[in-house]
């Protein structure tokens, strides 16, 4: 059997020594290639410029708990008031614009409350990056119970629980209660947070900003749900088998009390007696003081009535009739006051005559916000930034991210319409207007300039490019063959999605037509979409096997979106549908079965044999040209697994999932060509690693040495490390660090390996 080598043995920029994030790093021995020096310099400079918020300080969680408690106390004080004055500032802001990689979601702000409309995969990551605090959320509204809208909800709930939010109110279809019960199969009890699910049969809900009434609506084929938030109001059209609507008047902003006029009329301004008089006058009541009748308009400015905004999701032509003929829209009382309609509606619906006519029924002053795949907006700017800078070092290992562009032209609309962009605002108070100042954009020149200002960085980049060009000349005849097998790191962080690193996901492209996915955390599909752009359907169609290491949310909650999008890709490409082989703990079937029976069908997407899986394993090996696929229990949570698989050509890959150092994993990964091992924590935090049942960097490297792995890639880093983890002195030229969207190839040719060794020696 040919000796197998890793292509990055001499080229990877991640084989480093020393502590790259140290503010004053000790002298570091000369690295064996220019890539090493280049990356060290880049990230040392970045580390000194890092936002302190990206590093979790000691006691950070306590600080978040204190912030949540302060909000609770201030909220309780406001509730003690008999009268609400209405919010002074209210705006609606786009979080996800509805593009294929970021589902539609909206954030509504008032100084009293925060509301989130839909919580698809990646919503939490966007809120963190753009500083929309999840700890301030009071209510989450779901327009329908599809994974597109609830894919990020389980992660959001776990985050709210961890940061000490005592209660969150969820409004959505009746299946929402079943969904919450289903996620407890992997989240465990949610005892520390009160989740109030508000069905349409309950009494109206009221808070400092608005009152919410739920009104059931029947459509032609299904029972629809309408959310109507009046004054600052919102219709949400639900499209599930059993849904309901909300009618929600938001309290108008009462007029201001005019002190000079009050003094002139003899009112006791400045004394305790003035309080009840002001309250009565602001409520529009006429009072009598010292025998004198005083009307509200004499001492108060007029109350500011609220506007109405509507959020509609009409996912297909099937629901157009129900939306357009709904009685709430047909009354002049509602239609005449609508200032904004947000359409979470695909292009196929927007271009129908019936839907266009319904849009035209609103006043000419009504604005229409469109959220669907035809939008063009950058969401994850920090991810683009770091990829552009890494791309300067090596364009093949760190390819630039790609946009996904819809080929179909946008629907022609005859009403004032705006295409959604991430962080686009529509302000309702104090001034009604669009605000674009917060919209993020990718300034490639600025990102390149920032990296270029790192001392000696450009010189090192030039040296790296010369090295790459020489290597290409040597390997010209092998260029196409050496691409496979290829490993693409989709998510390299732990616990929850953050702006630099998404949660776990690793794609192994075995050949041009065969791929295996190792773990599938929330947002995995979005990462694939940004990595491959217009080619994402081809990539999805080649995934035949998914391995889930354990049932923690950061390792599997992206699975459903991946499966739904894979089916869509096969249909778009005209390929026959076939389910994926799912290798996962048995507990995953409890979760998938509950979701399948109560929410959406999913089980036909997978092949899973809970009992004797000999036949399925044979099919898996045959479909992927594998000689062996092994798993073993590891030391993490209950039913946590690692895996290794050997290709017929001889190369072998071992994947740890989450684990402490584990002898069983050393055994099944013996002599691996590539070991991908979690290194959640830095050296010196062994006690914390043992408590959380994770590994430190040195522990992960030691496993690789005991395994006799040819190359070790460290993965699954704690999100406390802003861009790059802290290094130990155990790093050698056999150890690398993974980044999101990093792409490496395993070469399986003795001559090519020899040429790599020559290249390494030369440079």
TrEMBL record:
Residues 49-83 are annotated as: Disordered. Its EC number is 3.1.26.11. It is found in: Mitochondrion matrix, Mitochondrion nucleoid; Nucleus. CDD domains: RNaseZ_ELAC1_ELAC2-C-term-like_MBL-fold. It is an enzyme of class 3 (hydrolase). Keywords: Endonuclease, Hydrolase, Metal-binding, Mitochondrion, Mitochondrion nucleoid, Nuclease, Nucleus, Phosphoprotein, Transit peptide, tRNA processing, Zinc. It holds the Pfam family Lactamase_B_2. The keyword Protein biosynthesis does not apply. GO terms for cellular component: mitochondrial nucleoid; nucleus. Residues 516-717 form the Metallo-beta-lactamase domain. Its cofactor is Zn(2+). GO terms for molecular function: 3'-tRNA processing endoribonuclease activity; metal ion binding. Its main location: mitochondrion. Residues 61-80 have a biased composition (Basic residues). It catalyses: Endonucleolytic cleavage of RNA, removing extra 3' nucleotides from tRNA precursor, generating 3' termini of tRNAs. A 3'-hydroxy group is left at the tRNA terminus and a 5'-phosphoryl group is left at the trailer molecule. InterPro entries: Metallo-B-lactamas, RibonucZ/Hydroxyglut_hydro, RNZ2-like, tRNase_Z_dom. Homodimer. Interacts with PTCD1. Belongs to the RNase Z family. Zinc phosphodiesterase, which displays mitochondrial tRNA 3'-processing endonuclease activity. Involved in tRNA maturation, by removing a 3'-trailer from precursor tRNA. Associates with mitochondrial DNA complexes at the nucleoids to initiate RNA processing and ribosome assembly. This is Zinc phosphodiesterase ELAC protein 2.
